[in-house]
Write a structure and sequence with these properties.
- Helices cover 42% and strands 14% of the residues.
- The protein is of the alpha/beta class.
- It has one domain: TIM Barrel, CATH 3.20.20.370.
- The protein has a 5-stranded mixed sheet.
- α2 packs parallel to α10 and α8 runs parallel beside α10.
């Protein structure tokens, strides 16, 4: 990432006459983040079991909801989850969803040297390859990347990233010697700050109704601006019964309020015009 102004990505009209593109994305972290904290977590069975709930229980509920709602989604899967929950990636693919790269042991880039970052990327790729996946998109563990990460993503042939937050519209970033489409998220549109829990500070355990309002207000903003919006969730959080009911209400309200195109990140990236196309042609929209 450079200090230069980011170049907004230009898109044609959303498919089907939609007035907003909505990406529902899920980070299937499993036990990886805890094991990545240190070897002591190999003995902390309760913490590990909380992570295991995601791929073992929450994921199935999410896939069921998406199937009933006829919605494709993007699942960012650490290599550790792919290796230790061997039915997870096949179940995601069977539902017609996209699988993206999310490291191997969910190690944040800012805590690794260049060799460590490369190992996380390559181990993650190898694990997904064993499940028949060559991901085109990447989301960094902990939503933190450093300049070397972008260069490595270019070298490894990724088409897009979903780790940065310089805009609420997709934009072009500098990645090595070529541009990389950034599809940004934001902590306020993620379930973890509201419903997650860690041994460091606990969780907010927010009122789902308040989160519904925030997410739908952002949806309405995106609809008015005819842009894309990304929501980020974790099966160990949103996969709880009461929170999945919240997500179902959000999806229903989105359809009542507008004409959303529910799409994977890869589908959105495939529509992006080339970098530098700052002036939309007639009949297009930013």
């Amino acid at each position: 990432m450079t200090d230069a102004m980011n170049s907004e990505a230009v898109f044609p009209a959303w498919p089907g006459g939609a007035d907003v593109a909505v990406a529902l994305t899920f980070d299937v972290d499993g036990e990886a983040p805890w094991l990545g904290e240190g070897p002591e977590y190999s003995r902390r069975l309760t913490m590990r079991s909380m992570g295991r709930f995601g791929p073992a229980r929450g994921l199935g509920r999410i896939l069921g909801l998406l199937a009933r709602s006829d919605i494709p989604a993007t699942f960012y899967v650490p290599g550790h989850t792919a290796d230790h929950h061997p039915v997870a990636v096949p179940a995601i693919l069977a539902g017609g969803h996209e699988v993206g790269h999310h490291g191997y042991l969910h190690l944040a880039s800012d805590g690794l040297d260049a060799a460590g970052q490369r190992e996380e990327l390559e181990r993650g790729l190898s694990a997904l390859d064993r499940r028949g996946v060559r991901p085109v998109g990447y989301r960094s563990p902990g939503w933190e990347i450093v300049p070397e990460t972008l260069s490595m993503l270019a070298e490894l042939g990724f088409c897009y990233d979903s780790s940065l937050m310089a805009d609420d519209r997709p934009y072009w970033e500098t990645s090595g010697d070529r541009p990389l489409l950034e599809i940004p998220g934001h902590w306020s549109l993620c379930d973890w700050p509201y419903f997650g829990w860690t041994p460091y500070h606990g969780g907010l355990l927010a009122d789902p109704a308040a989160v519904e309002r925030i997410w739908l207000d952002e949806y309405e903003s995106a609809r008015q601006e005819r842009r894309a919006v990304t929501y980020t969730m974790h099966p160990e959080a949103i996969g709880r019964g009461y929170l999945l009911s919240m997500l179902e209400r959000v999806i229903s309200a989105m359809r009542d309020l507008g004409r959303p195109w529910f799409a994977t990140h890869a589908q959105i990236a495939a529509l992006a015009g080339p970098p530098g196309a700052n002036e939309p042609a007639a009949g297009t929209r930013t």
